[in-house]
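User: Assemble these into one structure.

Assistant: Restating your components, then the assembled model:
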Amino acid sequence: MDILINFLYYSVRAGTPLLLGTTGEIITEKSGSLNLGVEGLMAMGAIGGYVIGCATNSFLFGVLGAFMFGLLGALIFAFVTVTMQANQNVTGLALTTFGVGVYHFWGRSLTKDFPSLDNAPAFKAMVADNGIPGLCDIPYIGKLLFSYNSFVYLAVIIAVICWIYIRKSRPGLKLRAVGENPGAADACGVKVNLYKYFNILLGGGICGIGGLYLASVTNSGAWNDNWINGMGWISVALVIFSNWSPSRAILGAFFFGMLKTLQPWKGNLSTAFPEVLGWLSAIPDEFYQMLPFFITAVVLIVASIRKNKRSEEPSAIGLNYFREER
Amino acid sequence: MKITKSIAMLLSAAMLLGAAGCSSTGTEAGGTAAGVAKEEIKVGVIHIGDPADGSGYSYTHDLGITGMQANLGLEDSQIVRKINIPDSDTAATKTAIEECIAEGCHIIFGTSYGYMDTMESLAAEYPEVYFSHGTGYKSNGTNFNNYFGRIYQARYLAGIAAGLKSKTGKIGYVSAYGTELAETCSGINAFALGVQAVNPDAVVYVKTLSSWFDPANETAYAEALIQMDCDVIAQHCDTANPQVAAQNAGVFGCGYNSDMTEQAPAAHLVAPIWNWDVYYTSAVEAVIGGTWAEFGNYYEGINVNFVDVSPVTANCAENTEKYINAVKELMKSGEWDVFSGVALSFDADGNIVKTDAPLVDNTGAAIAPVDDATITGSMNYFVKGVELA
């Protein structure tokens, strides 16, 4: 039983950066903008937030820093696609290269005195898996629900707030209108460009926080040039898996976290349950490395085959809105 | 598409011309076979990563290059570095090496396994340039040699530190590969034999990444091993993430490549390390002195300090330093080696006890005597006490 709880526990931890990336991208896409640069936004948020968090020894400033750097990246995207009307796909891809480049350049220039979490104890305490005092001691439930680092709770709270924002609030209604039919929204007096800018920036900022998770939790702040490691791309695919709903993104992200955790845990699981799960260790590592991307491909195929009425995909996604061409 | 192709052809033609021009001046200057003046020698290095990363594989190789430079008193301009050259990309490898030749390098070091075939073919094309390839197995007997070391000796010593430290008797090992690669396989076995010298019943649990560089999984693997009650985490992969994970969980670990005490000061015991400067210095000296013909392939170990363990930290158990030094002396004297079929243990006073104990694999089958070729090329079993997790 313990081993299953632990497996789920590590799955949740592995899924958290995906949840932040996915929530950010959902907000962005709901405004009709397809920002493929999540990988780059996460990279910028990772290095910016980490450096600021260590310098100020503050989790709050680290998160705000990551948010700001993600937002800065998204600002480039918003300016180029909304104001300059450039192609969204190309801009997003360019933003990936740019963001990862910023991260490499900044990190490499620091290497000799790269900030260490050990020198920022208050920041470190918040990114360590200390959990919620008292509650984390409850058997089973405590480990599974109350033993995480602050990011996990922050990510879930952000996802829930975003769900309320999109589904239940008046600005959210207008946001969906902009994503579905910007011309009609414009005719109703919704400031389309303002909504696009606001939500692209908000979404980019949330993606940036996901990057900070990869920097400070997944890699414990130790420098290497592969902090993001494709998580931004999986996030983009998870948006479709979650059907553009932040609440479903919570489940989707943790499911993908589980897929990622299977590779390191296959031996633990097959040793603990030789009859039921013994076959796990017989499967080569390469299969597990492929699994999240394979499932992503399957999701894309299935999603494109059954485009039914329940799809929440914004109709105007990927299309720039230019009032004079209405 | 056509335009890019013709540009590429033009560029490569230009590069070949440049290379040809330079190599002919090299021969006019006296020819490398007769030796090269120290002030004139140029050394090329092909790195798979960026030495500026501050730790890991390329960093330690470059420490060896700068060490060689200091030992021999070479100028900065005499070293030509090509960084971030992917070793799976033959074209990029070839371009980088030809750039070195064009810049007048007399000897070129290729630090990663995948450069091997490209270096072999270029060695035939440019007989006046020396090619030296690390970690592989090919050579041509004239201007292309191979260098590697008995890192398994250092791993045995790290195993002693791990075995003394472990209380649960379970030691985790995050490895890039397992039995499918002799380098990782012999390293794991040597480490386990070192563990068993001081902790006979301990088990080494190995998890394989199937990748040399996978930072997120390096952390996750260490965490999963710690969940199996492993209280020392050893590694054969590039980043210090397993050590940091060990530190975060309050257990201990043995790094690799460089002294990882810096990254995990509260967890790190000792790390098997390379002193690449030992080889680079003697190789460049051979080119300078014109003695390359006698130099040949290079496979040395702790006897010339080519491999070693990092200084014993305060995290280590009592007697660690004493035991390690005793075994190190034994290895240096050439009296005993890891896979010799003689097991070491320590009596109550800390004296080494030798026992005839032919190697047994983890299925219980006896293993034929292990020679150098097996260690570097074909070892494909785990010894008793090693489990794939």
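Residues 16-31 of chain B have pLDDT under 50 and may be disordered.
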